[in-house]
Amino acid sequence: MSTRSIWPRLLLAALGALLVLFVVGPVLRLLALASPMSLVEALGEPELRASIVLTLGTATAATLIGALFGLPLAYLLARRRFAGRRMVQGLIDLPVVIPHPVAGIALLLFLGRKSAVGGALAAAGLEFVSHVPGIVAAMLFVSAPILVSGSREAFRVVDPQLERVARTLGDTGWQAFRRVTLPLAGRGILASAILAWARSVSEFGAIVILTYNPKVTSIYIYDRFTAFGLPAAVPAAIVLLAIALTVFLAVRLIQPMETE
Amino acid sequence: MIRLEGLGLRAGRFEVHDISLEVPGGGYALIIGPTGSGKTTLLEAIAGHAPLQAGRVFLDGKDVTDLPPERRRIGFVYQHYHLFPHLSVRENIGYGLARSHRPDSSGGSWTRSDEVAELLGISSLLNRSVRGLSGGERQRVALARALAPRPSILLLDEPFAAVDPAARQTLRQEVRALHEREGITTLQVTHDFDEALRLGDLVAVLAEGRIVQRGTPTEVFRFPNSAFVARFVGSGNIIKGMVEPPETGTPSGPFSGRFRGDGLVLDVVAEREGPQHAVIRPEDIVLSLTPHEGSARNQLPGRVVRLERRGPVTLVHLDVGRPLVAAITAASADAMGLDHRTHVTASFKATAIHLV
Questions:
Q1: What range defines the domain where residue A189 resides?
Q2: CA-based nearest residue to B302, from B287, B280, B283
Q3: How many CB atoms are closer than 10 A to CB B133?
Q4: Residue B114 in contact with residue B169, Cβ under 8 Å?
Q5: Helices in B185-291 by DSSP H: which ranges?
Q6: pLDDT exceeds cutoff 60 at A1
Q7: Among B90, B79, B94, which Cα is nearest to B146's?
Q8: Under a CB-based contact definition with an 8 Å cutoff, are residues B286 and B347 in contact?
Q9: Is residue A191 part of a domain?
Q10: For residue range A21-51, what is the model confidence (pLDDT) as tens digits?
Q11: Model ipTM over 0.85
Q12: From the list B74, B80, B85, which residue is nearest A168 (CB)?
């Protein structure tokens, strides 16, 4: 009896294992090239160091801006029933389906000096195209959906009755949010912010169109690859991979407790 | 004191209309109604969680209709406790206390939290996480949390429904004792009339968002004003039928008449003629093995279908052409040798029939 049911399961396991190998294989192959020496050597390159600082800084800025505007929205989407709620929810997810170069071109048209918005902002001293704010804008565009939908879920799983209980115990709406909802949603929000940050660090397609220079690390890697070939790109690629893996670990450490 | 004047509101699929009710200071009132009758909606409106469409709410003589929940001095205990999962038992109980009275995490000195915890017999739980507490323990913590800030009003939403039956009994008694000790005006909603009989000074029956009857629990139980209330509070046998017009003109007061329904003809004392329900409480029915000759009572010959022993009382399910339930003492059931298929006569006075 049991011998008859083992084959389908084996087949499923085999299919899954192949895909996991396909994902893990290239990462391991790249890591195999990493040696402490090669990393030190790569980091000795001032241009790479500058790109890493730029990447981490712009990704952090994009995440903070996303949180400032996105967390209130996430809370509203999770808690309030309002006209057009579903539409807003759909719109905020729009960047997920837009190919990144297309996003870059759209942002270029929207924020360029010749557009009304870009022109006005440039007049106010905020230049996007070929400037650092362009990088932040591209990162914000691609990472906002992750932050908003992640924290929306984090808020949604907190029982709204808890806030009502806190209100009857003397809290104002804001106090109830700060003492109950925020601590309970905290892990989920943090995890989604880290994922949004990681998404920003990994962005290439939109940034390459908006701000090629100064170079973020992903563009630096591409630049080295096209100019000098594979061996020149590998050390920088390993550095970026190390950053990505650190983030991956951080999220894994936060999330299991959240889903408890 | 809680006074509701013409409350009306709608929250989701629940609505309540024109609710007026007064619970005197220190009183214990229950609102009973079936699931979906709008009980919880009503409590949330009193607490200020849901905006009113009509009416005013007065607590302790003060109009609080436009005050936010945090300024109404209400303790609210929900059916599913809603303890704060990120806080310890001590922190949960101390949540509503002013910052200066809040327990510090180290335990600190004797506080209001300790006092309330002792009152509810949960002192040993104070340093525990709320995860892993039993239903009864959770409910005690929820009660302690609501009582700690010394609210003037306590609202209880089905507080015993999710607790296992053994703990429920104890908790009920404790809540009643606490109520007497602290003198807090209490309003509880429940779907269980038994709870109202045990706990309340005053009960209001809610059906489809309206109060259909109010009074002391005994009044409502003995004199339900509709077949719905009679059925809901379990008043006993409910027979649908018709009071025949009296033989002599239109009487001005109660008259002796005849009720026909479900194949039975009963002597009743009626207030009016026409279609009505006859409610006969099981304990008002007397059973005998032989008919009483020449008695002024209603007498219905029948057959025992089933005996349901409930401690000192035995419910006798009869077939008298329609089902009828009588309650007699277990001792007389034994003395009469009642058994399945025994032929008996059920008799009851005309005045024992309550017409609604």
A1: 39-258
A2: B287
A3: 18
A4: no
A5: 193-199, 217-222, 227-233
A6: no
A7: B94
A8: yes
A9: yes
A10: 999 999 999 888 877 777 788 888 899 999 9
A11: no
A12: B74
Q: What is the distance between the alpha carbons of residues A178 and B227, in angstroms, rounded to a whole number? A: 50
Residues of B in contact with A172 (CB under 8 A): 68, 70
Cα distance between residue B321 and residue B243, in whole Å: 19
B115-155: per-residue pLDDT in tens? 889 888 899 999 999 998 988 899 999 999 999 998 989 99
Quick one: pLDDT at residue B257?
Answer: 87
Q: Are B122 and B89 in contact (CB under 8 A)?
A: yes
User: Greater confidence, B245 or A93?
Assistant: A93
pLDDT value of position A259: 44
Number of domains in chain A: 1
- Structural domain includes residue A11: no
Residues of A in contact with B70 (CB under 8 A): 167-172
Examine residue A114 and state whether it is found in any structural domain, yes or no.
yes
Asked: is B236-355 a CATH 1.10.260.40 domain? The reply is no
Claim: this prediction has a pTM higher than 0.80: no
Whether chain A has a CB inside 8 Å of the CB on B130: the answer is: no
Best mutation target, B40, B78, B143, B184, to test chain A (most A CBs within 10 A): B78
In this structure, the number of other CB atoms found within 10 A of the CB of residue B317 comes to 16
Q: How far is B128 from chain A (nearest CA, A)?
A: 18
Q: Do strands B62-63 and B54-59 pair parallel, antiparallel, or not at all (unpaired)? A: antiparallel
CATH of the domain at A204: 1.10.3720.10
Residue A253 forms part of a structural domain: yes
Single-letter amino acid, residue A251: V
pLDDT at B255: 86
Task: Output b/e per residue, B25-38; b: 16+ Cβ within 10 A.
Answer: eebbbbbbbeeebb
**Hey, what are A255's tokens?**
């999330």
In the predicted model, is pLDDT for residue B250 greater than 80? Answer: no
Q: Which of A165, A189, A258, A259 to mutate to test the interface with B (most CBs of B within 10 A)?
A: A165
Distance CA B36, CA B42 (A): 11
Which of B346, B234, B338 is closest to B288 using CA atoms?
B346
The string over B321-332, giving b where at least 16 C-beta atoms fall within 10 Å of a residue's C-beta and e elsewhere, is: eeebbbbbeeee
Q: In the predicted model, is pLDDT for residue B241 greater than 50? A: yes
- B67–A contact, CB cutoff 8 A: no
Task: Enumerate the residues of chain B whose CB falls inside 8 A of the CB of residue A162.
Answer: 82, 84
What is the model's pLDDT at position B173?
86
Return residues 111-170 of A near B (CB < 8 Å): 159, 161-162, 164-170
Q: What is the mean pLDDT of residues B191-203?
A: 85
B44 touches chain A (CB under 8 A): yes
Q: Is the pLDDT score of B269 beyond 70?
A: yes
- pLDDT tens digits, residue range A60-93? 999 999 999 999 999 999 998 888 999 999 999 9
Q: Give residue limits of the domains in chain B.
A: 2-227, 236-355
**Helix locations, A112-131, DSSP H:** 116-123
Residue range B2-227, CATH number: 3.40.50.300
Mean pLDDT within B34-58: 90
Give the whole-angstrom CA distance, residue B344 versus residue B336: 10
Which of A159, A163, A168, A178 to substitute to test the interface with B, most B CBs within 10 Å? Answer: A168
pLDDT in tens, B282-323: 989 999 998 877 666 899 999 999 999 888 899 999 999 999
What integer pLDDT is reported at residue A58 of this predicted model?
A: 98
